[in-house]
C-alpha cells in the first residue's frame, strides 16, 4: 500500500482538515467536508448553514435544492397514487357501463388505423386485459395498428409522421430553462451590490445638490455603472454555464432503443419511438413506452420506478402490460408499443418534475469553506477600515488633495458630512465585495461545465458532476476486458467439433448430418442475436459481439437462419447470466423430440458433460483422459488470447417438460450433457491501449483487469495490453474470482492491492474487490456494462459505464458514460479530473494574491493617511478581473501531459499547498510594495499610478498562475484562446479607463514614462516567480507545522495527529 494512502475508515472519521490546510475548527468539526457520493442530507444542510454568503441565489444555484428534492418525491407519490385511483375508478366505470350497456359516444378513429389514441391509452393505463382480448389479443391489436408482428412497421418518413400525428410523439413538455433576465435578476440580489447601488443613488443626489448637475453626477453614476457592469458580466457567465448543463442533460436522456422496422433490427432514439413500433427488450434495458408483450422468455420487469415497490414482476401473455420507465431485470422479449409521451404515466411524471440535476461536489463545498474563511477575514478588514476612516474623518485628520481638512466641527455642513460618510461607507462596502470571493465556489462549476463540454468531444458523458473531480484522485482503475481493452470485434478463428478442426466451411462435409443439425440448431435457437436476409441476398447480423461472431460462424457453416429457426420451436429459455456463465434453451422439433442446448464458459460446460459427440453422430463417454484432452485444447486456445465457448446438448422426454403454467419457474436440466464442440474467438486488443496503460502507470494509477474469461486468456490479454509484464505474471498478481470470493474480509484487503488480473470473475467478485480496495484507501474507478455490474458501479468512487454495450441499468448506476467503450477515453477522463483540481488551485492562488494585496493596501493607507488609494469604482473593476474574468481565464485551461506525470491528488489534501503559499508570498510582495507610495501623499497621479500598476500586476500574475509549479509559464498559452482574449480585454479596458474615463474612476491620464514604470513593476512578477520556484518548500503541510507548535493544552490532539502520521509513514 502506498505511503500516501490510509484506511478509508480512518480517513472518513479522523481526517477532516480545514480547507486552507489550517485546522481552525478541530479535525472533527469541519462542515465543509462531504463524501463524493450519497452525502447524507444532514451533512448537506450543515455546510450551507456554515457558509458565509452574500448572494444565496447565485452561490447555491448549482447545488442540490433540498426542498425541491422533497417536492419531487411528493409529486412522484401523488402521480403513482393518482394512477392507481384512476385505474380503480375506470374499472368501476367499465363494470357499470357493461351493466347499463352504455357505451357512450364512439371515439373518432385516426385515418388508416382501426383503433384510437384514447382507447389505447385507457387500455394500457388500466392494464385492461379484457379490452385487449376484445381487440383480438396482441395479434388483433397489431392488425388494428397496421403492424406486422414479425417485421414491424414500415418505418419510412411518411409512416412515422402519420403515427406521430395520430397517437402523439414520445416526448413530454419540458420546463423551459431560465432566461438571461432571471440570471440578471439573481446577480442583482447580492447584498453588497444592493448597498452600493443605494450608496450610488445617495451620492448622486448629494453630488448634484452640492456641486451642481454638471460636476456632481460623476461619483454616483460611476459607482452605479461599475456595479451594473459587474452584474451584467456575472449574469452572462452564469447564463452560458446554464446552457451547457441543459445540453448535457438532453444528451443523458437520449437513450438508444432497438426496434424492428421493415424486418430489420435498428437503433433509434427513445424520442423517435411511435405507437405500433416493435421494441426488442433485453436484460438491463429501459422500457421506452407503454405497451404489451408480444413474446418473451423469462421476462422479468422491475417496476419500482413507477409503483414505488421494489418488486420484480414476471411478464407473459397473461400479464402482458409494460409501463414506460421500468427496467428489464431478467430475460428478453419483444413488445408492441401502445402509448407514448404524455399518454404514459412516465411521461406525466417527467413532465411534472423539474429536470435540474444540480448537486454539490466535494471540491465545491470545500471552496465554500475557503470563501467563508477569506470572507470573515475580509469583513474584519472592512470593519477596521470603516472604523478608522470614520474616526479620522470626524476627528479632523482627513484632508483633501489641496491640504484642507475635510471635516471641521461646527463648520462643516450636514450635507457635506453625509456626503463624506457615504464615500467612506462605499469604500468599506466595496472592500467587502472584493474580500468575499463569491466567484470562488462558482469557479468549480465553471471549470466543471467547461470540462464536461470538452469531455463530450473525448467520448465521455458526465452524469454526476462530482465524478469529474473525483477522477483526478483515482488510484486504481478496475477495467473490463471485452470492448474496453479490446476492440469488441469477435471472430471465430478456431473451432473443434468432435475431434475435427473446422478450418473452412468445406470441413463441414466431414461431419454427419446429425451433428450438423444439432450444431446449427444450437447456434440458431440458443441466441439473443438475429440474422436479417435482404431481398438482394445481403445478410445483416445483429446482437452482442459474441452472438454476432457465433452467428457469422454458423453462416460460414451454410446455416440458413430463418429456415433453421422454423424447424423447431422454443419452449423455454435460460438467458445468459454472468453468475452461471452459460445460456440455455429447450426446443421441440417437428418430430416432438425435445433438445436442451447449452453454451458458455468451456470449463463450466465441460464439467456438466458426461459424454461427447463424435463426427459420425455417435456419443462416447466423457472419460477423465478425454476431459483432460479437451481441457488441453481449451488452454492452448486461451494462451493465444482466444475467448473459448463450448456447445453441448441433451435429449429430454416430452413428458419431463412442465406444463406451460409451470414452465415459468422451470430450471433447464444442466446435467448429463453431451459436448458438441468448442470454438475460440479472437478479440484483438485496441492498438492504443498499451500506451494508455503505460500513461496510467506513470501517473501513479494502477490498472486492474477484471474479466469473465479463464485464467490463461486473461493473462495473455493482460501481457498484450501492458497491464502485466513478464516479471509480474506470477500467481500473486493473477487470481480467479472464486478464490478471491472464498477469502474473508481481512484476507481480501491483504491481497486486493497486489492483484493485477482477476479472471473468471462474477459481478459480485468485482463488488468485493471494489470494497476491499476502498477499505485500504484506494480511490477506485470501475468500468461495467452489464446489469449485474450496477452494484459495483454504485459502490465505486467513480462508476464508468459503456455507452455502446452498456445496459440502461448500468448507465443509471454509473457516474460517467464512456461513449466509445474505449479504455483510452477512461484515461482522458483522468486527465480532465486532474485538470479540474489544477485549474481551481490556479484560480485560488490568483484570487488570494489579489485579495490579500488589495486588502492590505487599503488598510495600510487608511490607517496611515486616512485615505484609500483604491476607491469604490477601482475596487469593483479589480473584483471583476479577479472573480469572473479570472475564473474564465484560469478555470478553462485545457489539461497538459504534465498532469499525468505526477501522483494522484489526495481528496483531502489542502487546496492551498506549500508551493502555493510560497508563490503567494512572492507575488504578494510584488503587489504590496506599491503601498510605500501611499505613505507620503495621495495625489491623484500617485493613486492612478498605484491603481494602474496594481491591475497590470494582476494581468502578469494571471500568467504566473497558469503554471504554479512549472518554470515555463507560457507553455500552451497560444492554444488557450479564451485566456488570451480575457487578458487582452483586461489590458484594453485598463487603457480606456486610465486614458478616457478619469472622471468616473477618479484617475488622471498617465504619461508614457509612468505607463512604462507600471509595466516594469508588473513585469518584475515574472522573474520573481521564476526565481521563487527554486526555493524549496517543506513536504510537511502548513497545518502539520502549526500543530507541532500548538500550545500544551492541545498536546493530546497533536499527539494523536502525530501518532496517525507515524502509523501512516510505516504503512
TrEMBL record:
Presence of keyword Repeat: no
Keywords: ATP-binding, Calcium, Calcium transport, Calmodulin-binding, Ion transport, Magnesium, Membrane, Metal-binding, Nucleotide-binding, Translocase, Transmembrane, Transmembrane helix, Transport
Membrane topology according to the record: Multi-pass membrane protein
Pfam families tied to this protein: CaATP_NAI, Cation_ATPase, Cation_ATPase_C, Cation_ATPase_N, E1-E2_ATPase
PROSITE patterns assigned to the protein according to its UniProt record, in alphabetical order: ATPASE_E1_E2 (PS00154)
Transmembrane regions: 180-209, 221-239, 370-394, 424-450, 978-998, 1010-1031
Reactions this protein catalyses: Ca(2+)(in) + ATP + H2O = Ca(2+)(out) + ADP + phosphate + H(+)
Domain Cation-transporting P-type ATPase N-terminal positions: 134-208
Enzyme class: translocase
InterPro entries to which the protein is assigned, alphabetical: ATPase_P-typ_cation-transptr_C (IPR006068), ATPase_P-typ_cation-transptr_N (IPR004014), ATPase_P-typ_cyto_dom_N (IPR023299), ATPase_P-typ_P_site (IPR018303), ATPase_P-typ_TM_dom_sf (IPR023298), ATPase_P-typ_transduc_dom_A_sf (IPR008250), ATPase_P-type_domA (IPR059000), Ca_ATPase_N_dom (IPR024750)
Recorded coiled-coil stretches: none
Main location: membrane
EC number(s) stated in the UniProt entry for this protein: 7.2.2.10
Name this polypeptide is given: Calcium-transporting ATPase
